[in-house]
Amino acid sequence: MLRFIGCLLLIIPAAFADVYSYKGQDVYLQKLEGDRYLNDKGNVVGVSDNFFIKLDTQIAVILEKYDLEHINTYSNNLYKVRPKSKTDVLVLIEKVDADPLTQYAYPNFIKKIQAR
Questions:
Q1: pTM for the predicted model, two decimal places
Q2: At a CB cut-off of 8 Å and minimum separation 6, what does 10 contact?
Q3: d(CA 63, CA 103)
Q4: Dist CA 94 CA 103 (whole Å)
Q5: DSSP 93
Q6: How is residue 58 annotated by DSSP?
Q7: Are 29 and 89 in contact (CB under 8 A)?
Q8: Packing angle between helix 89-98 and helix 59-66, nearest 10 degrees?
Q9: What pLDDT band is residue 46 in, cutting at 50, 70 and 90?
Q10: Does residue 90 or residue 8 have the better pLDDT?
Q11: Which of 29, 87, 91, 98 could form a disulfide with 37 if both were Cys (CB 3.0 to 4.6 A apart)?
Q12: By C-alpha distance, which of 9, 13, 29 is closest to 89?
């Protein structure tokens, strides 16, 4: 019985969570407050206003298409970007990740939440 209850405690929150793809795997995030989320491992994480993308094309194409600002370049066409205007970053990441010119896009998680 305890095992069944434990399974429900893991499954029910996932049913109310946002799902996004991270390198081909589904990740569940349940919105708490502000930029804080509960992940599928039970950890509270923050989501920054910037994110990472890996591209099969020149970055200028994606920057213009999604109105993004380039922050940093890493090796092998990996970039850190942020939207120029205020938007739901997770929704934008889903759109960019679904673009055929993008290998993947994923959030810049804030793993250590500090009190304000």
A1: 0.74
A2: 40
A3: 15
A4: 12
A5: H
A6: -
A7: no
A8: 130
A9: confident
A10: 90
A11: 29
A12: 29
